[in-house]
Amino acid sequence: MKTDPHEPLDPDTPVEAGPQPHGDAPMEEQVHGVPTDAADSSPRQPALPIPPRIWTALVLGFLALPLAGLVQAPLLLPILMDRNWSQDSEAMKANINADLKNPGILLYALIASQVGFLVIAVLPALLSKEPWKQRLGLRRPEMDAGTWLLAAIGTLLPIELGAVAITLLVKAGWLPDVGDERRGLSEGIAAATGPWLVAIVAAGSILPGIIEELLFRGYVQSRLLKRWPPAAAIGVTTLCFGIAHGDVTYAVFTLPVGVYLGYVAWRANSTIATMPCHALVNATHLSLMGFFQPTDVRSAMIVFAGLAAISLPAFLGAVARLERRRPAPHLASTIPA
Description:
two-stranded antiparallel ribbon, disordered C terminus
């Protein structure tokens, strides 16, 4: 072996490996002077889940009525085409209310209004990164059939509380009387008879029971529950639900039932759970207007007492059963859209 440091080495002569820094770790395995195995041995923090955005749910919830109106407008053109638009607003309202006494027009208007809500609920869900059924809360309810039946019957109690509340508030002068649109709807249902009345009650019960639940307890509340505590998510969804009914007095009327429906959907972890509840409330309300409308205070009190006797035990039983189960965690999703 050559020992002269100035003499060039033969390329075939093996070279003795010199000392490597940091023990035996070769240079190519060093990262900034630290062995890679030492660098890789440091504990890694798990990535935090990305919270889902909620602004889409809030915008859709609070603007549900005008957004649905944009969808409904083309559907209502056949009714509006023969309008005399030079009339003042009061004359226009009177004509619309007169049209609603035509059962065919009333039924068509009910269906068109629900088509608008259906589009603004399903279309954003289809555009979401989350599967659309999951986005709308369409999963099997986490409750047995007995609890489901009690929950549906129990929904009649909050709607009675809403009726009592607006009656007292209107008499006290804190709320205006129900608006012309709602009054025209009530008069139209009361004027309908026979198969037309049955069809109107069915459409006004089943369609909102499914579609409004998809929108409010499904698209809106299910997303808010992934970012907010249940009380806040249910409260804001209920407020959106009330605003979507247009009339301020009628919105107050819907608040107790909105809270209850939100509670049931949260506890059952499903929008499907509240669909029959909502449909039953609407069917009862519309049937009282169309089939069994009380004509005096005594008759109204008898109807109220009868409904309370049925709904109060069911309400208490449903809440007791639902409270026994642990609700799904409301911060479970990491899907951003």
